[in-house]
Amino acid sequence: xxxxxxxxxxxxxxxxxxxxxxxxxxxxxxxxxxxxxxxxxxxxxxxxxxxxxxxxxxxxxxxxxxxxxxxxxxxxxxxxxxxxxxxxxxxxxxxxxxxxxxxxxxxxxxxxxxxxxxxxxxxxx
Length: 125
What we know:
Blueprint: E1 8-12, H1 15-26, E2 29-32, E3 36-41, E4 44-51, E5 71-74, H2 78-87, E6 91-97, E7 108-113, E8 119-124
Parallel strand pairs: 1-4, 5-8
Antiparallel strand pairs: 2-3, 3-4, 6-7, 7-8
């Protein structure tokens, strides 16, 4: 068996806001169907957003509705990436900091949430 494509799919009540957000973050475009949007970057399908009318956003980091998966996006400028995320409808959950397992290293990360509440990290080395 050979996997020929890997696509991350997010559930969202408002698939328009969620897909527009991820297309903006990833520098892609949205291809729309009624209950499904595909995010395409440089001609490659990289992400999907599926309508889930009863979606409940995770309450990060310790809420009763826990996250089940998140993305780590490595960028060259954490602050610029964070500004873009907020401009596109996301929100910051945790300011940039060094990871607890490497407090003296050069790695930094900040935690954000998409419009549907899916947590993700912007990281830099």
